[in-house]
Amino acid sequence: MRKLFLLFIACTLTLQLSAQVITSPDKNLTLTFELRDNGVPYYKLGYKNKPVIKPSRLGIETNDVGSLAEGFTIEDTKQASVNNTWEPIMGEQKTIRNNYNELLVTLKQPEQKNRFIRIRFRLFNDGLGFRYEFPKQDELKYFVIKEEQTGFNLAGDHKIFWIPGDYDTNEYAYTTSKISEIPSLMEKATIDVHAQVPIKNLAVQTPSMMKTSDGLYINIHEAALINYPAMNLNVDPKTFAMSSHLTPDAVGNKGYIQTDAQTPWRTIVVSDKATDILASKLILNLNEPTAYEDVSWIKPVKYIGVWWEYFVAGKSTWAYGKETNVKLSDDFTKLTPNGTHGATNENVKRHIDFAAEHGFDAVLVEGWNIGWEDWFGNWKEEVFDFVTPYPDFDVKMLSAYAASKGVKIMMHHETSSSATNYERRLDKAFQFMQDNGYNSVKTGYVGKPIPRGEHHDGQWMVNHYIHVAKTAADYKIMVNSHEAVRPTGLHRTYPNWIAQESARGTEFEAMGGLAPEHATILPFTRLMGGPMDYTPGIFQTDLSYYGTGNQRVNTTLVKQLAYYVTMYSPLQMAADLPENYARFPDAFQFIKDVALDWDDTYVQEAEPGDYVTIARKAKGKNEWYVGGITDENARTATVRFDYLPKGKNYVATIYADAKDASWNQNPQKYTITKVQVNSKSVLKQPLAPGGGVAISIKEGNKQETKGLKKL
Amino acid sequence: MRKLFLLFIACTLTLQLSAQVITSPDKNLTLTFELRDNGVPYYKLGYKNKPVIKPSRLGIETNDVGSLAEGFTIEDTKQASVNNTWEPIMGEQKTIRNNYNELLVTLKQPEQKNRFIRIRFRLFNDGLGFRYEFPKQDELKYFVIKEEQTGFNLAGDHKIFWIPGDYDTNEYAYTTSKISEIPSLMEKATIDVHAQVPIKNLAVQTPSMMKTSDGLYINIHEAALINYPAMNLNVDPKTFAMSSHLTPDAVGNKGYIQTDAQTPWRTIVVSDKATDILASKLILNLNEPTAYEDVSWIKPVKYIGVWWEYFVAGKSTWAYGKETNVKLSDDFTKLTPNGTHGATNENVKRHIDFAAEHGFDAVLVEGWNIGWEDWFGNWKEEVFDFVTPYPDFDVKMLSAYAASKGVKIMMHHETSSSATNYERRLDKAFQFMQDNGYNSVKTGYVGKPIPRGEHHDGQWMVNHYIHVAKTAADYKIMVNSHEAVRPTGLHRTYPNWIAQESARGTEFEAMGGLAPEHATILPFTRLMGGPMDYTPGIFQTDLSYYGTGNQRVNTTLVKQLAYYVTMYSPLQMAADLPENYARFPDAFQFIKDVALDWDDTYVQEAEPGDYVTIARKAKGKNEWYVGGITDENARTATVRFDYLPKGKNYVATIYADAKDASWNQNPQKYTITKVQVNSKSVLKQPLAPGGGVAISIKEGNKQETKGLKKL
């Protein structure tokens, strides 16, 4: 008996002390898991024998059932390998490879009646994903999270592209610094943003993009954020240790868990090539396939809108009335028209005409519905009803007019973050859309949330956004959310949640401007989680054109074209005013041509904060589009065409910055050149400071290619 | 010019210094308003030259726009008189007189750019109502309430019937004491109630019933609680000063106001007769008439239910499955049936049969829908979906079966206080009801609210209940809410909000018991605000009958009959099990006969904490019903019949406690006697300790009256 017992102890010790190790399919990455003193779980991650994450804690602290971060023994470990492919409904690639080695560790707490949790690690060639799982069991049914204790102990004082940790907004400008420099830069980085709630201790947001001194790129984010708060990262600027910091709710709790449950995946994308970071599909692979049975109604959307004029023209307004204190119960026909309302029948018809003429799918109309006179800043619950148009917006007439031209109107549901009001009215709002032929909605969450005390990135609001997406699907409606929590690949699971803003987008070009490097960072940060409705396409970049101020969009015109390729989204806006496109019809042709959905994507060059060059093949077509951008520095992009079918010539139309162009000098000067290219061609393309290049590549018949220079 | 200025000053001073006085139409009540030092508004109230409320402050403190409680000058005062009548859709009287003198004071703040508020006083013969009004103006658009500064400075150490101040529950037992004794009794009074949040400083709830040493009855409550938090009363046990204490929200604010707006009415019902307090229609008069155009579908409801068996039988459960951790996404047909589920097809059909046989309108069925396995205590958001029945409850079959018998099933929507979940699903839930022939719903709010941090009695939840009532009206559904905020007469405005619980009701007879005096206090407290679904009619009062424990309902059987008259509600349950009614068919006849809607009401005797005797005339019928109850003491009720048409004899059926009956000895012993009565008859009816009397009075033909003793 005693022998048996010793044997048992020995086995247990073996399990306890021997670290569990898996490698990525290509062997470059190594994940090690072990229990340390007091049964505390640790993991570490290495890449080609370099430490990416030094040994770091794992676990959850609760408010009610004791710690789920210590006192563990290993009950069981399992390994598995998966290598398959799947096809997204829309995406950067027709086919995505899902190839990983998995380690599933079951940890039990002997002093807690053997209750157990699991930690599941999936190690891909492009990085690591892991999550906590809480299986259904008698000893663990409900618990309240005090904090997640996931560590990310970095191996050095890396360069980091960061925005301040915040519970409510992602709309910060990026700061680039060493980790150790974050404290001294935090105050300056915490610029004013609506409804911001910066985290009190030192923290940054994810996706957090880093680069080590020896050239390793590390990106920390999360995947499949469902029924859980979003994660920020606490930062220790001395040890370079980061750790999870969940968004609290109104009473300070961080999450409510009912087993069977799991956390989102914590993701660490790693490579010594920056282009591999952008090419990573790890986050999408960690999300669940959609359960929607019919997805035929989910389609790319290229749209224009009654929108930019609200920011630049200085005369157009969302609001209809002069009054600044209105209620939904008011009779809005009795308001005094302010004379500047944007969403009028006439203006919308003009936009529909333009959209129809140039092949756009939809026209976004903001400011169509009552309530805009004092929609913001009053923490007002009953702020919009989503079904009552202003007196000068005739829904039935405009819907019929749009339908007759083959164009959709894109609905706008600004909620002013009064999420309870929106949920209460959601079915009626979507029914109204369906009744009037709308098939997509831009949602907005400007301001402090209601339920009061909740945050944009907390569990309640996370569930809200998903509730909206799922309910929209019941009505076959696509959702483009603004100011919602940053995306985590959920567009795989809820493909009608077609795009999000959730970062500092083009609108800020009219409100202080974006740094020329901004859009070279976004693909490495915000876009790691999913498509962004960046609303590019601003041709009239000098906004003093409209008669006031000296504000400008800090890019060349051509860089705005390049965004349609560098910023992946199946929903893309041509954000400028129709009359500005009319002034540059040749450049506008690129926006009209460019695809939104792709068979394949080729990240050719990239360095966060400096430049990005991407080529993509249009879905189901022999057409390719290339976008290259640079920061404030001129550079020469190297564009290769090796993805083209071999031995055949194609017509490339190159939209390039003029020689004397830059973001602040002659930004509207460009050249458009047609050349012949084949798979062996290489283009050395100069980009202006704050500039870019955009290229469309099509099959040309003899007539078209005749006389074209070969590249 | 200087002269003019002085004249202006003089006028202002006159307005400032001269108190404004109005009297009630019968001159018994006197209301005085004045501004004191620093422009602080005060009021006082007298009754027949006795002080009811000594000079007390008025005003609002805000969190954002400075004080609205001082710095005022009187801009204007207006007086008006109203004397008219109106007819409630259902009620204690066919016609209600609305007779008051009004003082409307406009107060401006010269140092705040002359922004202004109004205080409107309405002085009825039965008491005072006043409210704050915030007209729309450039200088006052939005503000956040820190606290309302309304004082109720009482004139002495009155006897008071009180429950502890609490933000979340009204389900306390009453304590009777002097005001000065409240501190020493508070701890004992604060018994355990689900989801209670007792107020930290000394406070009691309204309606607050008091009696002065010289026999004046004073009742403080509120009317028309809309878009505002419910009021508790801070208590100073030394000065007998009370003051408003509003229920805070999740972030500690007390209310969000957008002008044009007004507070609920603060009500002070006063009389030297206790019966006048019960007869007062002041609170109803201060509520707005309904805006519903069609009210034909709003009707009295007499119902039985699959309900009491959950409390007493010890074998029946709301839950269907043995499992104690379920999610709405689970397949409930896969649960292990616990064998004790109450809402089965068979049991519901049996209840429908009984209801049809005995003329009931409806059968409440609780526990019909999935989620009851762990519905409470986990602050769980997605707790019920309101549309998915358990596998053994066939909605379509039962709806058809009920319809074939002329009976409705009453829907049950327990929300577990997850109000956001309920709102999200509300339209679908009501559509489901409509599709299946339901026309009334019992809602429940057990547990801590979601949005988390909000309280049952805060502004958000107050708006929620009204939202539910209004949305229900869109579907022609009547609402009977349990655990909602205490009523304030809103059944006039939203008449489909037919009844509420909002106090310690019959269910507590099965959970510790109610004091025999409890139901003699409720009409003076909880019922001042509106009808109560008290769920009376328990015939089997000794609950050890069911085989366990020694719990008992602390009344005689006859007292349970009397409740149908003493507890006004157009919705009344016969709460006991059908098989218990079958054992006492002669007593059950009273429940079958008693009306729910009345032409007139005669409060004959009343003393809070001791006894209540009320007679009522059935709406549109020559039938009268009398209920008399006593506390733990035997007494002789004096029942008069002077409301009967003169010179005509009627048949009175008197349901009386047997001589040796009492609440704890022979509670089921009773006598039923038929006698002739006319308008001159007087009955001296002995009531047992914890007992009562119930009388039905009908026209009898010669055959029926023949041989009947004259009273």
Quick structural overview:
Two copies of one chain form a homodimer. Chain A has three domains: 19-285, Beta-galactosidase, Chain A, domain 5; 296-309 and 317-490, Aldolase class I (TIM Barrel, Alpha-Beta Barrel); 503-711, Aldolase class I (TIM Barrel, Alpha-Beta Barrel).
Outline the structure in words:
The structure is a homodimer of 711-residue chains. In chain A, strands 7, 8, 9, 10, 13, 14, 16, 17, 21 and 22 form a 10-stranded antiparallel β-sheet that branches. Chain A is an alpha+beta fold. In chain A, helix 8 packs parallel to helix 9 (459-474). The first copy, chain A, has 3 domains: 19-285, Beta-galactosidase, Chain A, domain 5, CATH 2.70.98; 296-309 and 317-490, TIM Barrel (Alpha-Beta Barrel); 503-711, TIM Barrel (Alpha-Beta Barrel). Chain A contains 14 helices and 38 strands. Residues 1-15 of chain A have low confidence and may be disordered. Helix content of chain A is 18%, strand content 33%. The first copy, chain A, is globular, with a radius of gyration of 26 Å. The interface between A and B is medium-sized, with 32 and 32 residues. Chains A, B: Keywords: Calcium, Glycosidase, Hydrolase, Signal.
